[in-house]
Amino acid sequence: MTRYSIFSLARNALSHHERWPLAWRSPEPKPAYDVVIIGGGGHGLATAYYLAKEHGITNVAVLEKSWLGLGNTGRNTTIVRSNYMIEPNAHFYEHSLKLWEGLSQDLNYNVMFSQRGVINLAQSDAQVDAMQRRGNAMRLNGIDAVWLSRDQLKAMVPLLDCSDHPRYPILGALLQPRGGTARHDAVAWGYARAADARGVDIIQDCEVTGFRIDRGRVTAVETTKGLIAAGKIGVAVAGHSGHVMALAGLRLPIETHLLQAMVSEPVKPCFDTVISSGATHCYVSQSDKGELVFGGSLDGYNSYAQRGNFPAISHAATGLISLFPSFSRLKLMRTWGGVMDMTMDGSPIIGRTPIDGLYLDGGWCYGGFKATPGSGWVFAYTIARDRPHALNEAFSLDRFQRGFALDEKGMGPTTGLH
Amino acid sequence: MMLIPCPWCGERAQVEFAYGGDATVKRPADPASASDREWHDYVFVRDNPKGPLDELWYHAAGCRRYFRVRRDTVTHAILASTPLPEIT
Amino acid sequence: MAGQPFRGDEGGLIDRERPIAFTFNGERLQGYAGDTLASALLANGIRLVGRSFKYHRPRGIVSAGAEEPNALVQLAVGARTEPNARATQVELFEGLEAESQNCWPGVGFDVGALNGVFSSLFPAGFYYKTFMWPASLWMTYEHWIRKMAGLGRAPVQPDPDRYEHRFAHCDVLVAGGGPAGLAAALAAARSGARVILADEGADFGGALRGLRATIEGRPAMNWVRAAVAELAAMPDVVLLRRATVAGYYDHNSFVVSERPAEHMAVPAPFQARGRLWSVRAKEAVLATGAIERPLVFGNNDRPGVMLASAAQAYANRFAVRPGSRAVVFTNNDSAYEAALDLARAGVSVAAVIDAREDPGPAARRVREAGIESIPGHAVINVQGGRKLKAAEVMAINGDGTACAGGDWRAIPCDLLAVSGGWNPAVHLFSQSRGKLRFDDRIAALVPGESFQRERSAGAARGTFTLRGCLAEGFRAGAVAARAAGFDKAGEPPVPDCDTQAETPLRPLWVVPLPKHTRLKRFVDLQNDVTAEDVALALREGYDNVEHLKRYTTLGMGTDQGRTSNVSGLGILAGLRGKSIPSLGTTTFRPPYTAIPFGTIAGREIGHHFAPTRRSAMHAWHEQAGASFIPAGLWFRPQVYRRPGEGMMDAIYRETKSVRTTVGMIDVSTLGKIDIQGRDAALFLDRVYTNNFRKLPVGKARYGLMLREDGMVFDDGTTTRIGESRYLMTTTTARAGEVMRHLEYCLQVLWPELDAYAVSVTEEWAAIALAGPASRSVLERVVGGVDVSNEGLPYMGYREGTVAEVPARIFRISFSGELAYEINVPADYGAAVWEAIHTAGRSFDIIPYGTEALSILRIEKGHVVSGELNGRTTADDLGFSAFLSKEKDFIGKRSLAREGLWRPDRKQLVGLIPVDKKTRVPRGAQIVEDPDRETPVPMLGEITSQCYSPNLGHPIALGIVAGGRALHGRTLHALSPVTGERVPVTVTPNVFIDPKGERLRG
Q1: Neighbouring subunits of B (3+ Cβ pairs under 8 A)
Q2: CA C270, CA C163: separation in Å to the nearest integer?
Q3: Domains assigned to chain A
Q4: Is pTM beyond 0.90 here?
């Protein structure tokens, strides 16, 4: 692997950038692998990378039905944070955040993880209570959290409407300084390049069409590129978990919903942090290119269409203008939709399944991007050791039947409400 | 925006409706005698098909009736709309 | 003010009688009504307009429309400033101020151009390969990257203008008002169909505005004017100018962004600056035209390099010479007409360079006009920096892969008009989920199989002759109308148009570099993506369309690749040795052109983000000095401060009054649901955990509702007001959800039950009268009811009158005092409230707000949202007694799950600070050992807290693991985010009158 650095960039500039090697190979699949990962998004690629790096398992293939990172990895609003209250969530996402903090160097690929701070606005008395409660839990769990008064917030984000005029006036905010954003595509590409360098086969344009299961144990996957035998199979296809697991005969506590995101035309820097508002259903940051990147609520019905309808866009844009009245004359440039695995408690599923050798990493709801390193790390552990790590024990598939739902929002078993 | 055909009010914009989810879910007739698995499947597990789905819509800003719509989750095409059976 | 040296003396669709003064980069200039900013700048000889995104290269005007990648300007100043406006679409108005963007100190000399000097270090994706060492410096690197990036500046003041929404239905929506769109609208409208025709321009005509075409021997614009006049006279036709059909969504719904006032400095009074139309069309005709492709060759970004059709439009429509001496470079026929029109406008056209070996009759025509025709050649480079000086021309091989070399020549020029062919504007078609197909005839993507009820017509489907556009427009309009039910819609005869024979184009995606040169050949002008960047992406494995776009940022600028996407595809296909169709196509995502957020938001911003609900007594509360607090959509009185009274003093006064004398509170916001039917009691038994079948008429009962997963959903009292009639109350917050839940149960789960539910929240005003003197007050106003303890005992219900108004009187209490709730028809609410208040004066009655209510309920240990957090069970809250063992109810079966009955679940407790002085911090977590290092195990959390004026010390409610077994223990309430820590003693959750003697008195 050619190391990336300012020096290699300068050296290659002399040869007019004509000698850069492939970032990853595109091999034909071998007949068999120790581990096959289904899904060439951030999670699947990270899992392959950590299988190789942490567990020495390199006879691994990642199968992607289209091209790397074009599902939810390339369709999100790039927010990274660990500001959770419920303990298993807090510990897991904090582990992930710590991995983010060294990720560019670990992968030798700049994923532009930018710790510009994530701010959650409190816009009612009840939200002040809830956010201080969450901030307190974070601090006691060893996670950074700062309560901002309205004045402190106004000083940090001058364009935010901190007056009494809005329908839901801002009363204060919870800041996680270590949260931020990252360059989403780079995460997939960086993991792909690093996994490839450790011997992982990345196979694009290869759709899984079925599983071979022998006496309760998975033995191979059927694909559009033929049958591939596998000792173990990890599924990381969030958005399509229901569809893929159905090929193995499993039904899940998941429904697939549609979430849209959007960007404005690029402008010079006008605010630095990530701002999130529950009251106006909107979260926004400004990308390094200058675009306002933001999203809102689910479209609200089951859908596998990676395109949504206008009410959800309109609602998010209206929320944005309510927070930042001066953005009214900026323009919506591009919108897109992704499909989400929405679970019955809003938390992910990472662990074993009732079929031996088949593992599931899914149910990421809105929040899979920030989990990418942590999810890959614990999923690799779970596959390598055939048991969950302490960090993902609570995210088991059977938690609903046992009564241990991880319902951060307290919305109950209606997927669209999380 | 989708156009939802309410069997009582006719076609109306989607924003008038609340989504009711999978219509094929059936509450066990006698929960006490349902197995843990059956109950779990009823409360938490869904088929989540990629393609036609029978689902419930609630005309929240209209007649307040739940009804059944068959809709394709990939194309969003509405394939059928029927009232719920009424037993009185 | 300078003259307009490049303006012709006659012709064009401008009004020379109406000169318009404007400024660009501080310079005062003049144009005419009918100009765009771009045409006015060109008329004044201004070619250098902006700087590019990455290398800060000087850039001019490329196009005359929505596809403009370069000429982006910052408009106006102050609150009405707007970044990234396309000069090619900005209509000139008196006093317009525009500035170049993304350059410092100015567009002429820009320090950022240093990036261009070091551009060899900045190939596509360079940032993924560097800025990683040392890790700690990334935020610093990024700070500077951000400063360099971005284009214009965001406004910092709130937008002074207003925006609005319109909703419309029609039989046929026609997107685009060029010849095909007008023809379609005519054919559809003549059949009687309701037609909406929308065009992004200030007037209809589309490309005809910039051409010298004729129809029936007369200027084509005459036909356009006649068509528009005919349409305008029809009552069921809506003509929308300055309105872009920007989005095509499910079930033939469209989003149209209209700009009624962007062409003036300040909108007229009450005029909207933007208007968003949501249109539902039975059928649609997409007549969105086509966008000319630039050609990709060395330094093809220099100011003066312009699309041939744009140069032609500036000459014809605006009577502007976009240069003095022009060279035309093309691979197809359309640019020959441009060359001739430029010559007619007085531009000296030196030559037409054509990549084709045999351009056919078109070449003959230009030669006849005295213009040199150079077939089989290409422009390989241009000379000049901020201003074009010459085009370097060389022969190219038949396969277009290399320069033949040998006959290099430089042709002096200050305008290079280029045409690489035409891309039909298939954006809306693609948004509708229609399948695109690649048409080799025109080397472009065209609409293939339709998915929704639409059809494309004219240039939008690759038909470029005027006659063809009109014919297809008429046909599409008639077909659409017939499909919408207007069976008699027919196709008008197609008028005569002059049509020339066409020689097929020769695809030329990139002009090869002359040997030993490394010229920059731009594919995406705005984002500075070069042909070499595409090659680099391919070399590194980012070799499919989506990776290419994301890695190089090709097509990701404000023009969304309207001039670059297909060229990028072509170059990629060439490098991979594959056909374009085999690479798949890129996705066209909405909106077609950017929509101002203000337009999208409309009026529902600021205070009107959500609706506001007010009770019938709201005006009284206002007059009494209440401050209000949102509760769901409602605004409820929070506290009634007296003049000079502090907030907390007022709250404590109200709280004490209720416990010592009497208070009244507006509880109209509680959800009220009328439930009737033979099976109403059975129904309640199934939705509530406790038993309602044995509740006698005239009695109320507290009810607890669970979700099906066993968690507490809502609570409230339900009263049997008749033999088969009940009145249920819900919390304010959950009223809507509970109603929907009941409807679900009745309609979906148990349709066999004879029970009906209807929300009556708005029909009734509700007043709670609480305190030891409440009975005495009530006695003064009540009629027909004995309200003595025997006549109306605790949890009793009677109907009578209050202040002579028919009333429902409930003996229920939230405060824990002797209390009544009185419901009267909402219209009488204010009068009855007033009457009770007057009657209570001798008992020192006071109105109290939600703050006092909250303290009263914490003192009584009642649970609300903090405790009903969706994760608590009935047992957690001490409600086990309400879980009937005799019947099934929603959620019961879920309670058997292990996780719901473990003894270490968090249980409701009371908490009192050990020092009986320090307030328990809100949102605090409860721990055993406050001095442990993180992670500190958390036993629970504070859910509600207050100072109790009746007890004289702070109290709190919380949920604590195994808390009911911890009464008497000392724990610690920690709030690190506010720096508070308070030792607390665990107690039962009821602080006042645990036996409930007062409310029964």
Answers
A1: A, C
A2: 10
A3: 25-78+185-254+345-402 (3.50.50.60), 116-180+256-342 (3.30.9.10)
A4: yes
